């Protein structure tokens, strides 16, 4: 009996990869041959290699919304990527291609359409990224994390399902998290996660306020690659990490408040865990503004408070933290009203039905 084959694609940031990882773990590898197509140097390559999935690199160009000479060069890179992807797809002959967006996904989607392979895409943000805007015309089905996003896509093939949440992130132990951190239960735990694109100003502000913060909170500071400060290693109640992998679920289970960027996948995971949030989105100079829109929706629904990076100071940080801590039970009640649609199971079932 021939196995079913699926190709995943998506990259550029961890947010375009982690939902794919959740589905890869969910699809029984006895039942499916799973392959990933990504860029040669993107974060997706590093993340996928850890789960022992065959990985094919293709040429890809950055998609820009402004006029630039590099657009001409990147057009040729995208065309080369289409040829690379077509060659891989013809070799693999998958039943379906699943895309999470990012610039590397566009050549794969175009090649899949040329070969008449069914295409599913999932849009995590409130408004679609440029890659998914281009890809929507080729897609067989489109799925969204936000209900409000449906209006940006063809209604006849778009379904609001929520965000696919990694099952393992929901299975943490608060007791194990405190033990790993060597934290006690007398003070609440504040976790700071800046995301894969970094958070220089957040890191600096946390450290400048550390004396005041550690009188009220025990702090887990996940600060990104090469961003730990060795001079602060011995501060009581303050633990810093470049990244956390296996222990993250336990740390989040013990967390009372989280400071985060506005990436959709992360904030939906914190929503699923009922952790009140301060969202500090990437600025318009750093991004297309998607994180700001995500943060505004979550704030409107009572799940979080948004603090714009331009307004971030030691004083505003402490004021916002005090505000969230006072409102934490109210925010958790709002989170309890969120209609959990179990997007992960829904997507996996839809994929299985395509055979």
TrEMBL record:
Q: Name one GO cellular component term.
A: plasma membrane
The UniProt record lists the Glycosyltransferase family 28 N-terminal domain at 6-144
The UniProt family comment states:
Belongs to the glycosyltransferase 28 family. MurG subfamily.
State the protein's purpose.
Cell wall formation. Catalyzes the transfer of a GlcNAc subunit on undecaprenyl-pyrophosphoryl-MurNAc-pentapeptide (lipid intermediate I) to form undecaprenyl-pyrophosphoryl-MurNAc-(pentapeptide)GlcNAc (lipid intermediate II).
GO MF annotations for this entry?
undecaprenyldiphospho-muramoylpentapeptide beta-N-acetylglucosaminyltransferase activity
Q: Which UniProt keywords apply?
A: Cell cycle, Cell division, Cell membrane, Cell shape, Cell wall biogenesis/degradation, Glycosyltransferase, Membrane, Peptidoglycan synthesis, Transferase
Q: Which InterPro entries match?
A: GlcNAc_MurG, Glyco_trans_28_C, GlycoTrans_28_N
Catalyzed chemical reaction(s): di-trans,octa-cis-undecaprenyl diphospho-N-acetyl-alpha-D-muramoyl-L-alanyl-D-glutamyl-meso-2,6-diaminopimeloyl-D-alanyl-D-alanine + UDP-N-acetyl-alpha-D-glucosamine = di-trans,octa-cis-undecaprenyl diphospho-[N-acetyl-alpha-D-glucosaminyl-(1->4)]-N-acetyl-alpha-D-muramoyl-L-alanyl-D-glutamyl-meso-2,6-diaminopimeloyl-D-alanyl-D-alanine + UDP + H(+)
User: Which organism's genome codes for this protein?
Assistant: Lederbergia citrisecunda
Enzyme class per UniProt: transferase
Please report the stretch or stretches of sequence annotated as the Glycosyl transferase family 28 C-terminal domain: 190-334
What is the membrane topology here? Peripheral membrane protein
State which pathway it belongs to: Cell wall biogenesis; peptidoglycan biosynthesis
Q: Where does UDP-N-acetyl-alpha-D-glucosamine bind?
A: 13-15, 166, 196, 291
Task: Name it.
Answer: UDP-N-acetylglucosamine--N-acetylmuramyl-(pentapeptide) pyrophosphoryl-undecaprenol N-acetylglucosamine transferase
Its Enzyme Commission number?
A: 2.4.1.227
Its localization reads: Cell membrane
Taxonomic classification: Bacteria, Bacillati, Bacillota, Bacilli, Bacillales
Q: Which HAMAP family match?
A: MurG (MF_00033)
Biological process GO terms, please?
Answer: carbohydrate metabolic process; cell division; cell wall organization; peptidoglycan biosynthetic process; regulation of cell shape
């Amino acid at each position: 009996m021939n196995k079913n084959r699926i190709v995943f694609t998506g990259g550029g940031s961890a947010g375009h990869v982690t939902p794919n990882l959740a589905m890869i773990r969910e699809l029984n590898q006895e039942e499916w041959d799973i392959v990933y197509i990504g860029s040669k140097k993107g974060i997706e390559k590093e993340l996928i290699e850890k789960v022992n999935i065959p990985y094919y690199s293709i040429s890809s160009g950055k998609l820009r919304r402004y006029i630039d000479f590099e657009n001409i060069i990147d057009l040729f890179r995208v065309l080369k990527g289409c040829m690379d992807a077509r060659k891989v797809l013809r070799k693999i002959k998958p039943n379906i291609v699943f895309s999470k967006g990012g610039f590397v996904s566009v050549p794969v989607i175009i090649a899949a359409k040329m070969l008449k392979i069914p295409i599913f895409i999932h849009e995590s943000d409130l408004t679609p990224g440029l890659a998914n805007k281009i890809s929507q015309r080729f897609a067989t089905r489109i799925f969204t994390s936000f209900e409000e996003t449906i209006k940006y896509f063809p209604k006849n093939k778009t379904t609001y399902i929520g965000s696919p949440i990694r099952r393992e992130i929901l299975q943490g132990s608060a007791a194990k998290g405190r033990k790993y951190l060597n934290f006690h239960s007398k003070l609440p735990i504040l976790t700071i996660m800046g995301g894969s694109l970094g958070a220089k100003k957040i890191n600096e502000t946390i450290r400048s306020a550390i004396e005041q913060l550690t009188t009220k909170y025990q702090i887990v500071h996940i600060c990104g690659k090469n961003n730990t400060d060795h001079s602060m290693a011995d501060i009581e109640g303050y633990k810093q990490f470049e990244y956390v992998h296996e222990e993250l679920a336990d740390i989040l289970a013990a967390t009372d408040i989280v400071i985060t960027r506005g990436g959709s996948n992360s904030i939906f995971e914190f929503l699923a865990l009922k952790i009140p949030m301060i969202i500090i989105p990437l600025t318009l100079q750093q991004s297309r503004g998607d994180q700001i829109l995500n943060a505004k929706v979550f704030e409107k629904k009572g799940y979080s408070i948004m603090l714009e990076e331009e307004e971030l100071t030691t004083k505003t940080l402490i004021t916002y933290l005090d505000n969230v801590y006072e409102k934490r039970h109210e925010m958790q009640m709002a989170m309890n009203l969120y209609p959990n649609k179990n997007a992960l199971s829904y997507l996996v079932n839809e994929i299985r039905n395509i055979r």
